[in-house]
Amino acid sequence: MSTRRPSMQGALGQIGTILVTLLGLLVLTFIIGRMMPADPVRAMVGEDATRETYEQVFRSLGLDRPLWEQFFYYLGDVLTGNFGTSIRTGQPVIQDILHVMPATMELATFAILIGAGLGVPMGVIAAVNKDRWPDHLVRVLSLFGHSMPIFWTGMIALIVLYAKLDLVGGSGRMDQFYIGLVPETTGFLLIDSLLAGEMDVFWSAVNHLILPASLLGYSSSAYITRMTRSFMLDQLGQEYITTARVKGLSKHQTIWRHAFVNIRVQLVTIVALAYGSLLEGAVLIETVFAWPGFGQYLTSNLIIGDMNAVMTCVLIVGVIFIALNLLSDMLYRLFDPRTR
Amino acid sequence: MTRPILDVENLHIRYGGAPTDAVRGVSFTLGRERLGIVGESGSGKSTVGRGLLRLLPSAKITADKMRFEDVELLSLTEEQMLGVRGRRMSMILQDPKFSLNPIRKVGDQVAETYLRHFKCSRKDALQKAIAMLEAVKIRDPERVCEQYPHEISGGMGQRVMIAMMLLADPDVVIADEPTSALDVTVRLQVLNILDGLVRDRGIGLIMISHDLNLVRNFCDRVLIMYAGRVVETLAARDLDKAQHPYTRGLIAAQPRIGGARAPLAVLDRRPEWLEEVSR
Amino acid sequence: MSVTTASKLRVPASVNALRNIVLFLMKSPTSLFGLAVLALLILVAIFAPLIATHDPYAQDLANTLQAPGNGHLFGTDELGRDIFSRLVWGSRITLTIIFLVSIVVGPIGLAVGAASGYLGGRFDTVMMRITDIFLSFPSLILSLAFVAALGPSLNNAIIAIALTSWPPIARLARAEAMTFRNADYIAAARLQGASPTRIIVKSIVPMCLPSVLIRLTLNMATVILTAAGLGFLGLGAQPPLPEWGAMIATGRRYMLDSWWLVTFPGVAILCVSLAFNLLGDGLRDALDPKQMNRR
Predict the structure, then answer these.
(1) Which UniProt keywords apply (chain C) (predicted)?
(2) What is the CATH number of domain A95-339?
(3) ipTM of the assembly?
């Protein structure tokens, strides 16, 4: 089990660390933005602008100042919530991102439910049957999920399950002719369609969601399985397990009522981190499934070199990661009686 | 002595993958008495205790006889064994820091024993638990019930353990080094509580310990184990008259207040003890 | 064994340990599979000119999108190129990526980690904050951003992957270095007047090396998947290079009618990454002493 953490001082130190990390994150995104080969001025003024207009815009963007000064402008902008305008859409980047985020969150949430629903029981089964066939089977299954190039598995699944067998919906969030039928209230299509009472749209959305979410979930279950197994093995070797057995509890009761309750908190941490790394898979799977989410937004802007959009996307992923780390830490404090 | 509660003959235990038996031909009987098992670490004394409850998943246990009251323990199914563990035979483990589940409340853990073996509501079980905690001299048991194991002291933890293991009123209790992890100051108190309960309820107690003095004071009979065998069995009060050189070596290696200042004897282990048979 | 005593003495302990590890790995079917696939990969890469049946770049517009068979083992792509030959040549690209990433990441991670672990203090704090920043991204996303900044190409993809995969290695090396920092032989070296650089290079780095090597192996599966992902998104190897991820990307347009365009490169990626994962898993077991003795 983990050690007890000092609460107050630890929390303060943690806030300091987070601030430093955030600042570093900004430096990193700034560097990436400045390194990008695309010329932001040219993109704004167009190919046949005069030299004067070019110079003017160049200066107005502050690009003539020293780099460190430019960084402080960037810092100021970010702190006031100004992330710039997307060259591609002409909209504020942050607005674009807020618009595409729900689609990704819907996908990731379903994926993590599948991943945890698959990974946790598999991990427990593997730990309980350590070095026997169920353990080996789980190991191979989870390594397989960890090894597959998800963009490829996605395509193969589309070919087989959609094109050949027609079991699931194809690309996109719903069938073509439903698009625009449901007003966008929350951005989460499942919720929106229910709110609008459009059951057909709802089922179409479920049909389209199930395949990408399962694939993402399966690939994230590899990590969850491995961690669950190792946490469980730790617990099963503890003396209180003997106590439970001496009391006359069955194997099943010992595992779920004693060992498992002790790993719940650690599992929450792991699942939160796995949720973050789903973003990675989402970038690829969204491209394959033409899913209009964050991942697709990021990649399409990368390819055309839309600096503001890319910098903000990268920043947001970093912030999400830090936030998830923080969240899992807080959950840990909240649920473990020893840290109260 | 009337019919023994526990009758063990020629018990062998071998851990999975081990080249030799950890316990080699141990035989003893237990009546309504307090039996001490003494030996160095690795002598197999704890293995005997756990073997009796069939708690060793990877070990192979064989015996000519392992009779507990009216049942032959080795022929029970695991299912039937669940009804024996905790209800008719239970075990007190060494260190409450590790043997209590860290994230479940004390009352909940104690009551679980009762809930497992008797049909009753959670509330009734908790009442039983509180009464039992009172019996092990825990003040304010209602409050302790709501606490987590890390919030109570070691001595109190071990009393909770005793309460938990005696709650279903078993006939035999195995105490595996019940006081080794405790502060010297609370050892005696915990032992007295255990001793009182065992006497009052007529429970057969097997006290596994490496502490000769403790066994001498709290047991009726003593088995001395060496390398998986019982080398000598004698009444606790006759410990000083021990015949076997190993037992005498153990006794000689004990420091005494007011004893001679000469260096303590070094335990001498002879290979022939590994093979000799004794009753 | 027919080795003379003199030469026996000269065999370093590490070689023996390596042999033991390989022997242990051979006993488990899954690790054996991993070893076999990697051996195959290396052989195919070396003998690519001999194994490939066609020129990987030779277009044959009369024979586009041919199904497997008919002189083309895995069929042909949209420009009539032989997919099998492209896969075979692609193994060289995969190996190049693995090799280059390893020789960049290993030394950087080792140097940063060993120095921070040994020196401690402010240097350590700064270095660890930097790794924190890198670790607060999923590796693919950060690689994406770097490639976007550097411009899409195979070399830049390798640089980007290397840039994002040194922090975990540094973390590991640091943890190892910290356990050796207070060892007596380090103190002895210091008392003899050895400079910190000398101590780090001569005493700390060799001790961290084995675990770093293992970690590098474990990372290879991720490196391969990231590289393939970058290739797939058009940010890694550029056409007409026969990189497996890029092959899948171009095959995507034809996937519903010509399944072989995406299937075979994907199977190749899957096999290699699975091989590294199985091998890494076996290595972890092999280096766990408790496991070693049991079989």
Answers:
(1) Cell membrane, Membrane, Peptide transport, Protein transport, Transmembrane, Transmembrane helix, Transport
(2) 1.10.3720.10
(3) 0.87
